[in-house]
Structures are given as C-alpha cells and as structure tokens.
Design brief:
There is one protein chain. The protein has 229 residues and is an alpha/beta fold. It has one domain: 3-Layer(aba) Sandwich (Rossmann fold). It contains 7 helices and 10 strands. The strands form 2 sheets. The protein has a 6-stranded mixed beta sheet with strand order 6-7-8-3-9-10. The two termini are 21 Å apart. InterPro entries: AAA+_ATPase, ABC_transporter-like_ATP-bd, ABC_transporter-like_CS, ABC_transpr_LolD-like, MacB-like_ATP-bd, P-loop_NTPase. This is Lipoprotein-releasing system ATP-binding protein. Keywords: ATP-binding, Cell inner membrane, Cell membrane, Lipoprotein, Membrane, Nucleotide-binding, Transport. One of its GO terms (biological process) is lipoprotein localization to outer membrane.
Length: 229
C-alpha cells in the first residue's frame, strides 16, 4: 500500500495581535495519498490559507508535525525545509504570478533551471506540460498575450515542472468565469493524476469541489467534516 505523500498531525497555529490572540489552526489532522485530489472548503477567514502555508512549509506550526513522504519537517533547519519545498511541493494561487517578461515556456523552464535541470531537459519538460494542458501553440506568448484561463494553466504547468509530490492550490479558479474555471480545473486534475501527485485545493466553488475525490470542510481552525464520492 502506498504511503501518504502529505500528512498533517495535530497542527496548531496562533497569531498574536495587538488586541488578542487569534487561534487559526486548532489540532488539524489530514492525510493525502498519491494521485488524490482533495477539496478544502470553508468561509473566508476560516484559516484555509494558513493551513496551506503550514502544509507547504511556508510557515512553521506552533505545534504538531508536517510530514512529506513520511519525513517530519517541523524541526528541519530552514535550508533543508527550503530544499524539500522546492523539490516536493508545487503552489498555484488565485492570481498566476507569471513573470511578465518571459514567455509561457520560459516561465516553466525557469524553476527547473533553479533546481539544477539542464536547459535541454527543462525545455522538453515544459513542452510536455504545455501539450498536456493544450497550450503548445501558446508556448512563445508572454502572459499579457494569454487569456486568464491560459495564464492559469501555465501557472499549473510551472507548479508541476519539477514533478512535486504535493500540489497546493489556493483558489486557483477564483478569478475566472465559470466556463473557464471548469476548463482550468479539468486541466489541473488531469495533469496531477498523470504526475501521480496529490493535490489539496482550497476553493469557494462548490461545483469544482464536487468533482474532487473528497472534500474537507474547514471552519474555526478545525476540519469539521469529510465527504467523498
């Protein structure tokens, strides 16, 4: 049986403000298996982004443990956490954050070069992902020359460029119209499955959430329900 690619164990996170302490994550537990796509739904301000930040090793929890491929990460030095994040985790946000001076292919090649991949292999990988996402003819277009849906598909390709174990997506279709949202999500789902990764996708779009393998409902810093097909 496959081991989890992402496991959150009793994650706690509190932010201290001038007025009060804000308990954002309260003993969160979650397991993602290879090839699984899990929806994360909940009201604005419920802590979804904080959960993604903890899962993506962007923030250290106050207590609890984040395991990537069975390896604990909370007490890792920053250098090792950064290496794990670059190697094993991909991120997609509501806004694509593509580099405007580079074309679609170059935006996907760049993170691979940073990871030490050769130019030739990085270009081959970029072209493969662009083909999977139906963007081969747009490879040499800069972000300003692409539609919103095309830009977001390039962002998905960039997030998957280094074949991460985990894809974390924060409202990846939140800035798109319904038809484009559906197209982008299908591209994300198909590509994640082809890669054998696991994805945790925060969304307000219940139509999109219903197409995932299961849904985690998040409120008041806690996972309150699991649903599935």
């Amino acid at each position: 049986m496959s081991e989890p690619v992402l496991e959150l164990r009793n994650i706690e996170r509190t932010y201290v403000t001038e007025a009060d302490e804000l308990h954002v994550l309260r003993g969160v537990n979650l397991v993602l298996m290879p090839g699984e796509i899990v929806g994360l739904v909940g009201p604005s301000g419920s802590g979804k982004s904080s959960l993604l930040h903890a899962a993506g090793l962007l923030e250290r929890p106050d207590s609890g443990e984040v395991l990537i491929g069975g390896v604990p990460t909370r007490d890792m030095p920053d250098r090792l956490r950064t290496a794990v994040r670059r190697r094993d985790i991909g991120f997609v946000y509501q806004f694509h954050h593509l580099l405007p001076e580079f074309d679609a292919r170059e935006n996907i090649v760049l993170p691979q070069l940073i990871a030490g991949v050769s130019q030739r292999r990085a270009v081959e990988r970029a072209d493969h992902l662009l083909a999977m996402l139906g963007l081969s003819e747009r490879a040499c277009h800069q972000p300003a020359q692409l539609s919103g849906g095309e830009q977001q598909r390039v962002a998905i390709a960039r997030a998957l460029a280094n074949s991460p174990r985990v894809l974390l997506a924060d409202e990846p279709t939140g800035n798109l119209d319904p038809a484009t949202s559906s197209t982008v999500f299908e591209a994300l789902r198909n590509t994640v499955r082809e890669q054998g990764a696991a994805a945790l996708v925060a969304t307000h779009n219940h139509d999109i959430a219903e197409r995932m393998d299961r849904v985690v409902t998040f409120a008041d810093g806690q996972l309150t329900a699991y649903t599935g097909p």
